[in-house]
Amino acid sequence: MAKDSRQITGGLFPRKVVPVLIPMPAERAYSYALPEGVDAGPGQIVQVPLGPRLVAGIVWDGEADVINPDKLREVTQVFDCPPIVEPMRRFIDWVSAYTLSPPGLVARMALRAPAAFDPEPMINALRLTSARPERLTAARQRVLEHADNGLAWTKSGLAHAAGVTPSVIDGLAAQGVFEPVRLPPPPVVAAPDPDYSPPALEAGQAEAADALRATVARGGFGATLLDGVTGSGKTEVYFEAIAEAVRQGRQVLILLPEISLTAAFLDRFHARFGTRPGEWHSELAPRTREKVWRQTAEGQLRVVAGARSALFLPFADLGLIIVDEEHDPAYKQEDRVFYNARDMAVVRARLAGIPVVLASATPSIETRVNAAQGRYQHLLLESRYADAGLPDLKLVDLRRHAPARGGFLSPVLLKAMADTLERKEQSLLFLNRRGYAPLTLCRVCGHRFECPQCSSWLVEHRFREQLQCHHCGHTERTPNACPSCGTLDHLAACGPGIERIAEEADKHFPDARVIVLSSDMAGGTRRLRIELEAIARGEADIVIGTQLVAKGHNFPLMTLVGVVDADLGLSNGDPRAAERTYQLLSQVTGRAGRSGRKSLGLIQTFQPQHPVMQALASGDPHAFYERETDERSRAMLPPFGRLASVIISAATRPEAETHARGMRAAAPAAPGIMVLGPAEAPLALIRGRYRFRLLVHGERGKDMQGFIRQMLAQGPKARGSVQVQVDIDPQSFL
């Protein structure tokens, strides 16, 4: 058989082979040959064939596998794109090893904008020459006056500035008055000015800001806990660290837990630096995401504020990471790659040799322990800014002050709301439960409306006349008759959601302006931002919301916060239930009194003697956290021990259970590590898949990942519909 020239010369002049990490569940990089005359070093983004299609990948470190040259496929394109820098590549490897996720899936999170791999197109523009038009009209005169500054203009921009039609510009260009030029694409946002509007900091704030500036100026890795009560000015303090990093010409990443926080945060950032930061979250338009990704990789974008996925943006020269509201559970991703963005932010900072700041009014126990043990620097802000005082918190014992029949607001809370309305101030009612009611049943036969795909009740949304599952999204129309017995008008809503609380508030205060806020409100994030701005301007009397209103917002007229069901988060088996309840209620009551007005927080509870409630009422968080930390220590729970979840799911219950038992039997014997389960998950059925869980509990310092790898290798192979997911350091136990 005749050989082509490539086969003949391949033996004499072997092609360079490089490992390429592909964004798919691949356990290792694949080997590809570089075309003759083409070079690509580690970090370079390339296009390679994978089966019948072309995909983007990253040239990885190390040596490529030895493969038969006849079977080697070539790189088809080397993108004109800055390479993924070495600290980022080390970070991808580290996350993969720690979370037991294929490195290809982790790399996929860094390649979220494939259209950005090619340079942005240049912009056609015009620049004024020395030539002048044969006839000078008033319109042409205005154009020349605007263009006579030595700068290049786009045709539409110049026409708009001069107040003329584009045809006037075309006529001048035809006479040689303008010459065509090409301009680079504009930045997503202007460069921040660190000296634009320096704040007037008080003594405690200034001391903390000086410490952060010194940390950034010194360089090198260092983690700092910025711990301050709500309204103490934490944002203004860490803005000074950002200003120092910008002065050094470094890039900054700010992680935020909720997209809803972004609008208020952007306004504060703009007031301090004269421009907004770049944004990165799921609500961005695709074109904007591509611009942000590209300009971040080029180093043009200096500051990016985003959700947890922003951690995987390819920064060219990252110099500082800020994690705002570091305790927030929203930083944990539980899809494909299970990771906690707070912990991974510390890892990325360590690998890059840069500072990281963790800010919160209610830091997590893990972060508190790290600060107490000296691993993190601890900066404390113990008082609110200016003359603002913390709200006076009181417990409302629902056993003594029960709501009226069919209601959920106690007489004590209703009286406080009436007084607040009389003073022309705002009230906030907090209930962390969406919809109208969590359960709907038939009074005649007892039928309960369940999700057909999940082991959960359907939540009634009366405003939309729907029953909805909050786990899989299944919806159905709210019927008039029971589907089981056919009885009309005998369906009862059980329990409260925020819609039901809004109905009750409207009944008691019909003239009050009521706003209801939740993550599933019509209009999405844009509508939410509009509503939050309206509240800040005083255009609402009563605000009713879920945890969206619990953090980061500044409502000047808010002087009363009522927690409708403070016990809601205590009734599950989560070892962090008490801590999370305390954090959430502290954050939500902290919305009151931020402008200096006397404020009140009323917490409705059936368990006033619970340590969480006593800690809130006493205003002494230290005793509560000491107790929780001691309990964690005695039980060897994080941060004093380690946990990992192994979630087995399948289309049928026997498949899931059989595989889970096989994995349990395959667990190796290891001192200091034990396996609990398998047990059916509390939410045993989600999206039509049955779930069993194993919980691996180990001492701190034990090789949990190695143990699980061995268990997975020795256990049964996942066949059929079976899927196995590993969650290191789980935050959810459902």
What does this structure look like?
The protein is of the alpha/beta class. The chain folds into 6 domains: 5-108, PriA, 3(prime) DNA-binding domain (GIY-YIG endonuclease); 123-183; 203-381, Rossmann fold; 387-433 and 496-639, P-loop containing nucleotide triphosphate hydrolases (Rossmann fold), CATH 3.40.50.300; 435-495, no CATH class; 641-728, 2-Layer Sandwich (Alpha-Beta Plaits), CATH 3.30.70. It has a 7-stranded parallel sheet with strand order 10-11-9-12-15-8-16, with helices on both faces. A 6-stranded parallel sheet has the order 17-27-26-18-25-24, sandwiched between helices. Strand 10 (278-280), helix 10 (286-298) and strand 11 (303-306) form a beta-alpha-beta unit.
Count of domains: 6
Strand order of the largest sheet: 10-11-9-12-15-8-16
From the N-terminal CA to the C-terminal CA, the straight-line distance is 62 Å
Q: Give a short account of the largest sheet.
A: 7 strands, parallel
CATH architectural category of the largest domain: 3-Layer(aba) Sandwich
Q: Could you name the CATH class of the largest domain?
A: Alpha Beta
Structural class: alpha/beta
pLDDT < 50 runs, ≥5 residues: 1-11
Oligomer: single chain
Provide the CATH topology of the largest domain: Rossmann fold
Q: What gyration radius follows from the Cα positions, in whole Å? A: 30 Å
Mean pLDDT: 89
